[in-house]
Amino acid sequence: MHTAITIDALKALDAIDRKGSFAGAATELFRVPSAISYTIQKLEEDLNVSIFDRTGHKAVLTPAGRYLLEEGRSLLEAAENLAHTTRQVAQGWETRLRIGFNSLLPAHCLFTAIEEFYQLGVPVDVQIVEEVFAGAWDALQSRRVDMIVGADQLSKPAGSFATKALGEVSFVFAVAAHHPLARVSEPLTEASIARFPAAVAADTSRALPPGHAGIFRQQRTLTVSNIDQKIAVQEAGLGVGWLPLHRIREQLGRGSLIAKTTHEPRAAISIHLARHNEGKGKALMWFWNRLSEDQSIRNWLQPEHT
Fold it and tell me: What is the Cα–Cα distance from 180 to 229, expressed in whole angstroms?
């Protein structure tokens, strides 16, 4: 059965949207702009719909075009996953390994393991992806990543997953040294905290229920993309909230952030390595075993670590 919608056409449409122009898409796809224009024009003719509105100075997607793009990206991802799995079965080694890490951990926790993996000389591309809160499990469940470093147990979905404990993340309620709450007697009450905006790292989950720990009713929020930005916002005095202790030892040491006790302390959470039970790729299992046996992340999480 012939269909007008091809992988090639969807790739062109996706590239045009991401790059903002037909010329940018052509550069990314190593094609001439006329070839990109022809691909889209033929797709419009075959579907008998207008994908782009060309009445203005710049072509913009029509509602039909936007729908095609969004649904087409799912097909592109499925095709990519199919190709990836086929190569994995044929070669033994994956051609790509996607490692998600919870924003509670800094990316550099993975650098030593990645450097050692490169010394093996195997042709595997490694991608590290930052996820926030429930987004870590969501990325694994939806197979956007192959394994997660720092998955919590609170947002774990149903499914067949293998996990190994890494340690516990302790939290402190932190405010900037010049913030009004820095001078308020402890323990801080909900009423005193709720007067100021809460700094919030947006949960990256797409399907699982997002987390929202530490925000009081009626409290305004200032939302950022990850824990690094949340730390910066709180250090600037623009918001308050709970932060992982191991991420702000430097700020606490130099006094730019101050830890305050509250009437309702926040419990530490356990974090884990996680993967699908059936995941057995050579690169996946190398990182699984390497990170399981390495004590550096566990030691770094210890409250007494400096």
Answer: 21
What would the DSSP string read from start to end of 240-267? BEEEEGGGSHHHHHHTSEEEE-BSSPPP
Say which amino acid occupies 109: C
C-alpha 296 chain-centroid distance: 22
Domains and CATH numbers, the chain: 7-89 (1.10.10.10), 92-168+269-301 (3.40.190.10), 171-260 (3.40.190.290)
| pTM of the predicted protein model | 0.69
271: three-class secondary structure by DSSP: strand
| pLDDT, tens only, 35-91 | 999 999 999 999 999 999 888 778 789 999 999 999 999 999 988 878 866 776 677
Write the burial class of residue 287 (CB in 10 Å: 0-12 exposed, 13-18 middle, 19+ buried).
buried
What are the two backbone dihedrals, phi and then psi, of residue 9, each rounded to the nearest 5 degrees? Answer: -65, -40
What sign for the dihedral angle of Cα 56, 11, 203, 99? negative
Coil, strand or helix at 276: strand
**Distance from chain centroid for Cα 157:** 17
Q: What is the pLDDT of residues 158-205, one digit of tens each?
A: 999 999 999 999 999 999 999 999 999 999 999 999 999 999 999 998
Compute, in degrees rounded to 10, the torsion defined by CA atoms 44, 45, 46, 50. 30
Alpha carbon distance 242, 200 (integer Å): 9
Is the pLDDT at 217 greater than 80? The verdict is no
Give the helix/strand (H/E) hosting 135.
Answer: helix 135-141
What is the residue whose two structure tokens read 């062109």?
12
Q: Are the beta carbons of 125 and 95 closer than 8 angstroms?
A: yes
